[in-house]
Amino acid sequence: MDQTATLTSQARGREVARVKAFVVNAIENARAVEKPFHHLELENIFPPDIYAKMLALMPQAVEYRPMHGGGRARAEDGTNTRVKIDLFPEYIRHMAPEKRALWDIVGRALCSRPVKEAFARRLEPGLRKRFGDKFLKTGLYPIPILTRDIPGYSIPPHPDTRWKGITVQLYLPRDESHTTIGTIFHEELPDGSLPKRSQMRFAPNTGYAFAVGKDTWHSADRVPDTVVTRDSILLTYFVDNTLLTVLRNRGKRLGNFLLNEFRSRGRAA
To answer: How many whole angstroms separate alpha carbon 31 and alpha carbon 43?
Structure first.
């Protein structure tokens, strides 16, 4: 059994604090890139030992559920090409103890206030452009999702819904065998065209982050048949500054929990 499964609550709290501090440091030291829009390029996001455990304790396929969105999420044979697990305590409670302990630490660290504040500070240009001088006081609700893409998944250029304030994707490959399948960033030209301007490397323990705006066009090419899975964490900060957004964000979390419970009981039956 993985050692994290036997940690006391106090020791687990120290692990959360350690991972949290490591992630904050990665954000503070991330490379800021201005073109085609302001974004961060993240490296060495998680402590090496935690990253190794994440790879070793990846959930089994049956533990994921379909993730719906604007991309090609279903193959021609009906297979879901993008699936997910929400990294909240209530969603991962059916995992084996060692997996549950590890992913709980990761989820709690990513949802922490210091991580959110670090992203807000480093993404000031985009957030200030959208929310004005009070951008640091804008409510943001973090939702961390472990995602898995399989061959056939793709998503066309899009800027992300305005319900979102910050988009973060943390790549989880085992090696650098498929660095060319990372997210593509596009520039919006006056004629409406969206040429490719850059592409993230799908490399171990790396990622990117940007404040969602009208110009944050990005896409993902079709996952090729040579790739078994493309694993990552999508950490999305939803705008959470009105009664409507607060109710929407908590309602979605509750609804997804109920769906997950229903599905888990169906598997156990």
So the answer is: 9
pLDDT at 268 over 80: no
User: 140: Cβ–Cβ under 8 A, 6 or more apart, which residues?
Assistant: 116, 120, 165, 166, 237, 238, 239, 240
Q: What is the pLDDT of residue 69?
A: 63
- Angle formed at CA 189 by CA 211 and CA 34, multiple of 5 degrees: 40
Tell me the backbone φ, ψ of residue 72, rounded to 5 degrees: -85, 95
Whose tokens are 């030209």? That residue is: 189
CA 250, 23, 55, 153 dihedral sign is positive
pLDDT tens digit sequence for 247-260: 999 998 888 888 77
Tokens of 165: 């304030």
Rounded Cα distance, 28 and 32, in Å: 10
Each residue's pLDDT tens digit, 192-202: 999 999 999 99
Identify which of 184, 138, 187 has the alpha carbon closest to the alpha carbon of residue 162: 138
Model confidence, pTM: 0.92
Q: What is the C-alpha separation between 34 and 57, in angstroms, rounded?
A: 36
pLDDT at res. 2: 47
CATH of range 3-268; options 3.30.70.1450, 3.40.50.2300, 3.40.930.10, 2.60.120.620: 2.60.120.620
Provide the pLDDT for residue 254.
86
What is the distance between the alpha carbons of residues 19 and 47, in angstroms, rounded to a whole number?
7
What's the Rg (C-alpha) of the chain?
A: 18
Find the mean pLDDT for residues 84-108: 95
